[in-house]
């Protein structure tokens, strides 16, 4: 039995304008601010002699590798994303970028924005379009009832509001 794992499927290439700005800001911060600071600290640590026991040097080099890896990822990712900034003609149907308010059988409401996989953050109410719930919601009209399969069973939601406002 080998350790081979098939490659993960790539996420969708769609992103909101806010998400693209956030990725570009992160790339700029890493490349223009943090990397030069770490490089300077590694340079100073290297002057101290024996590098094998120099914690500042070892951890600085490790952080540089992490920064370089993230910069490579962000650079490649930003080349392939498609920014979706146009509003759909039918604003009573769930499409990418929509804020969707759902109501369950108990009357509890939840509000999510359907975004790309690079910008999802459930604490901010941003749900990846690749998630099972978002896949179920996409293309559904206002007041539709959707059934979402979960590990504990099927949950039904009513779509009570759809908004296309910026976050």
Q: What report would you give on this structure?
A:
The protein is α/β, with parallel strands linked by helices. The protein folds into 2 domains: 14-83, Orthogonal Bundle (Helix Hairpins), CATH 1.10.287; 99-163, Chitinase A, domain 3, CATH 3.10.50.30. It contains 3 helices and 7 strands; from the N terminus they run βααββββαββ. The chain has a 5-stranded mixed β-sheet. Strands 1-2 form a two-stranded parallel ribbon. Helix 1 (17-46) runs antiparallel to helix 2 (55-80). The model has no long low-confidence stretch (mean pLDDT 91).
How many independent structural domains?
2
Question: What is the SS-derived class?
Answer: alpha/beta
Fourth CATH level, the homologous superfamily of the largest domain: Transcription elongation factor, GreA/GreB, N-terminal domain
Element order, helices and strands?
EHHEEEEHEE
Write the layout of secondary structure elements.
Layout: E1 14-15, H1 17-46, H2 55-80, E2 82-83, E3 99-103, E4 109-115, E5 126-128, H3 132-137, E6 145-150, E7 153-163
Parallel strand pairs: 1-2, 4-5
Antiparallel strand pairs: 3-4, 3-7, 6-7
Helix pairs in contact: 1-2
Keywords:
167 residues, alpha/beta, Helix Hairpins, Chitinase A, domain 3, 2 domains, five-stranded mixed β-sheet, two-stranded parallel ribbon, 3 helices, elongated
Short note summarizing the structure:
The protein is of the alpha/beta class and 167 residues long.
């Amino acid at each position: 039995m080998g350790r081979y794992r098939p490659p993960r499927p790539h996420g969708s290439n769609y992103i909101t304008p806010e998400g693209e700005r956030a990725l570009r800001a992160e790339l700029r911060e890493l490349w223009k601010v943090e990397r030069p600071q770490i490089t300077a600290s590694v340079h100073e640590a290297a002057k101290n002699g024996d590098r094998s026991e120099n914690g500042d040097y070892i951890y600085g080099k490790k952080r540089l590798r992490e920064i370089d890896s993230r910069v490579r990822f962000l650079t490649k990712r930003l080349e392939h994303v498609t920014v979706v900034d146009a509003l759909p003609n039918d604003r009573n149907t769930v499409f990418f970028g929509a804020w969707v308010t759902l109501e369950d059988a108990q009357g509890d409401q939840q509000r999510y924005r359907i975004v790309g996989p690079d910008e999802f953050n459930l604490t901010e109410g941003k749900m990846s379009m690749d998630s099972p719930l978002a896949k179920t919601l996409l293309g559904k009209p206002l007041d539709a009832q959707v059934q979402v399969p979960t590990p504990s069973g099927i949950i039904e939601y009513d779509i009570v509001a759809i908004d296309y406002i910026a976050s």
